[in-house]
Design brief:
elongated; mainly beta; Jelly Rolls; 11% helix; 8-stranded antiparallel sheet
Length: 443
């Protein structure tokens, strides 16, 4: 009895100490490297915004229209959103517009605490004005058919076949207790942790307003109101610089990948390597030079991950299943275009010539290219006659080239049925740079 009593007392003391320590932590005080989005006193830095209003429609408003619309939204905000100053909490009564940051963000890491006040609640966090990291009551029987029982913390508005739609684990605290979300967004990829447990692992956020396009590269953070009282606090953000190493969430290139470039010279490469140079750990085509350089090893089905950086108006390409001679765009399976398609001289190109397109065959979705001078991350998967290309976290090509019957300028591509060949770069006189080049065999 004495041992049991003593152990119980020690456990109670530890619990009380832990509670005291948690209470001692100052609210709404950001950790190092993060910026506070809520000062605990008022809604400075936040505006109202109708959540169903697409960012594309908002961008088309004139300055006068925008000002009038914002005044209307802010009046609604002030009716339905408030601050509990005594507790340092933002309070939504469940009605009206969303609460939205006045500032837009690109790539970021976000922390936010949320509290569902009563059962059957529903809310969410919009990322760059796109829905959403879902928040709801897993015990809400009315929403079981919509997946509420799986829990909060996933990208509920994603397509049904996107694995990010449902959380990896059920991590919600009971209604009436605070929850902590950690969200990281790089490109269109999202990682989410709820109460320290990962619920989304690098899944692409689908574009709710136009599913044919990737989400916009910048936009605000929105706190959703959705019919029930919800409270928020400790809202912190860290902006991630474009191309910052290690921020894309990948733990290296991944299992099975091997480097095909040592960062120092052209060991393992063939072709006109004298037309290229290695600069700052990257392969770069010399200005005014060119030709296709390629790995000495051939590949059938494979994945390649790499980074590239474009100079103004820069032009190059990825040689896919290249036979070792000739124009890879036609004699190889294809050339995947690498191009500064924002340059004025490229305004009138065929859509099948823009960056990441299967040159002359399949057009890539546009809008994912980083500004000139910044590093882009590209991931290509080649299986049989299919090619999938991901640029900065956005899928821009997902095609079966064997089904294509119309080619640019009616020029056939005799090599498009090739099942094996070399991987390389098709230089076109511009100092385009490539680094961190990893390939994984799939056959």
């Amino acid at each position: 009895m004495y041992r049991i009593t003593t152990a119980t007392t020690l456990l109670l003391l530890a619990a009380l100490c832990g509670t005291a320590l948690a209470a001692d932590q100052p609210l709404n005080t950001p950790p190092e490297g993060f910026t506070n989005l809520f000062n605990g006193k008022d809604l400075t830095g936040w505006r109202g915004r109708q959540g169903t209003y697409s960012p594309y429609a908002e961008a088309k408003l004139t300055k006068e229209q925008q000002a009038a619309k914002q005044e209307e939204w802010n009046k609604d905000r002030d009716k339905n959103w408030s601050v509990d100053v005594a507790k340092g909490e933002i309070v939504s009564n469940g009605k009206g517009v969303h609460l939205t940051t006045a500032k837009d963000y690109g790539d970021f890491e976000l922390f936010v605490d949320w509290l569902m006040v009563s059962p059957n609640g529903d809310s969410g966090i919009y990322l760059r004005s796109y829905p959403q990291v879902q928040i709801w009551d897993p015990s809400n029987a009315r929403e079981k058919g919509n997946g509420a029982d799986k829990g909060s913390g996933a990208l509920w508005n994603n397509n049904k076949d996107n694995p990010g739609k449902w959380p990896l684990v059920l991590a919600d605290n009971p209604v009436g207790r605070w929850n902590t979300l950690r969200v990281k967004m790089v490109g269109s990829k999202v990682w989410v942790w709820l109460n320290g447990k990962q619920t989304v692992d690098g899944q692409i956020l689908d574009n709710y307003f136009d599913r044919s396009k990737p989400v916009l590269p910048t936009g605000p953070i929105e706190l959703q109101t959705h019919g029930s009282e919800i409270r928020f606090r400790n809202i912190y953000i860290r902006e991630i610089p474009a191309g910052a190493p290690g921020e894309a969430g990948d733990k290296g290139p991944g299992e099975g990948f091997k480097s095909v470039f040592n960062g120092k010279d052209f060991e393992g490469w063939d072709g006109p390597v004298d037309q290229y140079e290695v600069k700052d750990g990257a392969i770069m085509c010399k200005r005014g030079k060119g030709g296709t350089i390629y790995t000495k090893e051939e590949f059938g089905d494979f994945e390649v991950k790499l980074e590239f950086k474009l100079p103004p108006g820069g032009n190059n390409g990825l040689a896919i299943r290249y036979p070792g001679k000739g124009d890879t765009a036609y004699v190889g399976m294809c050339e995947l275009q690498i191009l500064d398609d924002t340059a004025d001289k490229y305004k009138t190109l065929d859509p099948r010539q823009y960056c990441c397109s299967v040159y002359g065959v399949v057009p890539a979705k546009r809008g994912s290219l980083k500004p000139v001078g910044e590093w882009n991350v590209e991931h290509v998967i080649v299986k049989g006659s299919t090619i999938k290309v991901e640029l900065n976290g956005n899928v821009v090509i997902d095609a079966d080239v064997s089904t294509v019957t119309e080619y640019m300028a009616k020029s056939k591509h005799p090599g498009i049925t090739r099942t094996k060949g070399f991987f390389g770069f098709a230089g076109h006189s511009d100092p385009v740079q490539f680094r961190n080049i990893y390939i994984k065999k799939l056959d």
